[in-house]
Design brief:
This protein has about 190 residues and is an alpha+beta fold. Helix content is about 25%, strand content about 25%. A hairpin with a 4-residue loop joins strand 8 (about 120-125) and strand 9. The chain is globular, with a radius of gyration of 19 Å.
Length: about 190
């Protein structure tokens, strides 16, 4: 089955492209060919898998079926050489809804989705900024993105929902106030 879900951001967020804009911004948001932000499926898969592993540790469970089947296991996870298992699911990129994409592109509004945010390290003894510590990054305004998980087994929906509830932030500087979000399943007949 295919699982549809949405990610709603409540504030600015940043998923990095690894690029800079020269002297202005030290880190740019990853964008598609239409200059629209997205979150790669690989990033989402890793984030959800991390939540599943943390939940498993807290529950002190040794049942790896959900993690093994959905995400796969690496040999380093089990400390058994050459015992890598590939997950059966494919995680799509999270993107703005198709109708909103069409409107943004046709009205040439994509530049309004981004802003520059500055930060610096402070020398608390002197009460001034540390030399050469000013950093500027591009952030994305609050949006709702949509994604899918293909080839998902329905019997693991409760585990996936629990993982979604575990995730509260996403992207760079999530421990410094960026990327506050919620993940939510879209039930059949739900809007996208």
């Amino acid at each position: 089955m295919t699982i549809k879900y949405k990610i709603t951001f409540f504030g600015e967020w940043h998923t990095g492209s690894g690029l800079t804009s020269g002297s202005d911004l030290d880190s740019l948001v990853i964008k598609d060919q239409n200059n629209l932000p997205f979150i790669p499926g690989k990033t989402l898969k890793g984030l959800i898998k991390d939540a599943a592993e943390n939940i498993q540790k807290i529950k002190e469970s040794t049942n790896n079926d959900f993690i093994r089947l959905i995400f796969g296991l690496e040999s380093s996870t089990e400390n058994i050489p050459d015992d890598t298992t590939e997950g059966q699911c494919h995680f799509t990129n999270a993107e703005i809804s198709k109708s909103l994409q069409k409107k943004i592109v046709s009205d040439q509004l994509s530049d309004y989705l981004y802003q520059g945010t500055s930060s610096t390290a402070i020398n608390y003894q002197k009460g001034v900024a540390k030399p050469h510590s000013l950093r500027r990054m591009e952030t994305t305004i609050p949006l709702t993105l949509h994604a899918q998980i293909l080839n998902f087994e329905d019997k693991y929906k409760a585990e996936l929902t629990e993982c979604f509830q575990w995730i509260k932030r996403l992207g760079l500087n999530r421990h410094r106030g960026l990327g506050r979000c919620s993940f939510e399943l879209i039930e059949e007949g739900g809007n996208q």
